[in-house]
Amino acid sequence: MKCSQCAYANPEAVKFCLNCGEKFFKTGKQEDDTSYFYEFAHYVDMVPKFERSVEPKFQNIFSRVFRKHSELEAERLFIVGTALTTPQLSEVKDTWPKPWLFARVFMITLLAFAGLYMGVSVFQNANFIPGLIIVGAFAVPIATLIFFWEMNAPQNIAIYRVMYFVLIGGILSLLASLVFYDFLRGHINPFTIGIAEEMAKAITVLIFVRKKKYRYILNGLLIGAAVGAGFAAFETAGYAFRALLTDQGAAFYNTILWRGIFSPGGHIAWAALTGAAICRVKEDKPLTLRMLFRFKFLRVFLLVVIMHALWDTSIPGIMPFGYIFLMAASWVVVFLMLRAGLKQVGERKLQI
Fold this sequence. Notes:
By secondary structure, the protein is mostly helical. It has one domain. Helices cover about 60% and strands about 0% of the residues. α7 (about 190-210) crosses α11 (about 295-310) and α11 (about 295-310) packs antiparallel against α12 (about 320-350).
């Protein structure tokens, strides 16, 4: 359907132009706001059928990253997940989404970081340092989190709620890990560090996914990724600040740079896998402690702990190649879990 105002080619049956917002169907009575906003949620990321694929092929998943998108498209993406804009299960797509907004968010944060870096390095203004640490610590984790948010096919979690999980979940998991460190005092090694930090994030995710609405594997991936993003960003900011206090400029920038590069395959991916495993055993039932002793959860959590332990094991001559391998391995499992999540959505649609 071609818009008469901007000539944008829209999918059939939409009530407004996805580019300029012009309404197509006007009636004598006022339309219900719920149905109007529901159209936003349902058609905001419409993709032609021939572009969609159930197979996790990178050229398919990221095919929309380099396409031109209007600001209105981004704005409409951000309204999904509310009581008015969560699509019904029958309308949820169970094939691979085409995320693109995460790349735009990354570019925006990268530009902000470049400006702050100039303020510190070129103009020697110390007032830019706090902003440099904050933006540098959060840039990649937030962009990665937006990717998980776009991949959440049920679209039942609003972006403001995701930010809540990042901030509150990040600090809660950090505090919980400190409590575990106190219990493990004198027995700190890569394996116990992995247990302490992954248990801390798992407990935090458990607190958040107790609600019945978080019944999908994809929900668990998103909530876990949010907690992991907060954990990773706050930790990076702390390490960067400590490097700054030692007057080591190179160490300060290297901390932000390398921890940012590897953050998607570290805390974010691990917490996402834990969250997905929790929701996989929880399903529609009330969460109980017994569910966490099921093999479906334990195998994923044990894998996460082992990867974390290997990450913290310093082996001369292997790192950073070891980090690259672990990052790739983490994301292979993430995509397998994404596939399982989409399959779950498809199965539930058949039960309607």
